C-alpha cells in the first residue's frame, strides 16, 4: 500500500512564502542591476572592466564640447593682442613724425625770426640817422645857394696840409644830393663822400663805412682833429661816417632829404673816430 508523505498543513504557507520572497528578490536584483548599469554608463568616471579597465566612450564624448568652446576664445584673444600691438606701433610712428615735423618748423621759425630781427635793426639804425639829420637841419644845413660861400670859406686855422685839402673839397660838395651808392661828382652817400674827399690827397679808403671804420688809428672822439673820420656804430659795424672839420662841426652826406650838409658835433655825438692823415 503506498503511502503518501504527509505534509503538515501548517507548513504549506511557509513554503509559498519562500518562493514569493525569492521571486521578489530576483525582481529587486534585476531592477538594481539595471539602475547600476545605467548609472555606470552615465558616469564619466565609470570603468568598463570587460574592455581592460579603460575609460568608456561617454567620458571622451563629454570633453569635446569643452575643447571646441575654448578654441575660438583663445584665437580672439590672440587677434585682439595683435591688433593692439599694431595700433601702438602706428601711434608711436605718428608721434615721432609729429615731433620731427615740429622740430623742423621750430628751426625754420627761429631762422625767420633772426632774419627779421636783423632787418629791423638795420631799419632802426637808418631811422635814427635820418632823425638826427632832420633835427639838426634847421640850424646847420647849408642850402645850395650858400654853397659857394661855404666853398670859399677858409679851413680852420688848425687844419694844415692834407687835412685842409680834404676839408676844402668837402665844403665844395655842400648842398649836393644824397643818393645811395653814389660816389660823386654830383651826388654821394655817406661813405662815397669820404671816399672821394680822401682820394684828393692820395688816400684810398674802403668803399663802405663798416670797412672805413677799421682803417687808420683808433682815437677817442674827444681827441678828434680836422680831417679825422667820425663813425656812428661800432668798429667794423659802423652804419654812418662823416669828417670832422673843426669848431665842433662835421660834414657828411646825411640822407636823401638833406643831401650833403655841415652839422654840429654836439647834436648827436659819434661813437668812434679814426685818424688816417
Would you summarize the structure shown here?
The protein contains six helices and ten strands, in the order αββαααββααββββββ. With 277 residues, it is an alpha+beta fold.
What do we call the CATH homologous superfamily?
endopeptidase domain like (from Nostoc punctiforme)
Radius of gyration: 61 Å
- Indicate how many domains the architecture comprises: 1
- What is the mean pLDDT? 75
- Distance between the terminal alpha carbons, to the nearest Å? 193 Å
| CATH class label | Alpha Beta
Main sheet specs: 6 strands, antiparallel
Number of helices: 6
Question: How would you sum up this structure, described in words?
Answer:
With about 280 residues, the protein is of the alpha+beta class. The chain has a single domain (about 75-275), classed as endopeptidase fold (from Nostoc punctiforme) (Alpha-Beta Complex). It has helices at about 10-40, 55-140, 145-150, 160-170, 190-200, 210; strands at about 45-50, 55, 175-180, 185-190, 215-220, 230, 240-245, 250-255, 260-265, 270-275. The strands form 3 sheets. Strands 5-10-6-7-8-9 form a 6-stranded antiparallel β-sheet, with helices on both faces. The radius of gyration is 61 Å and the shape is rod-shaped.
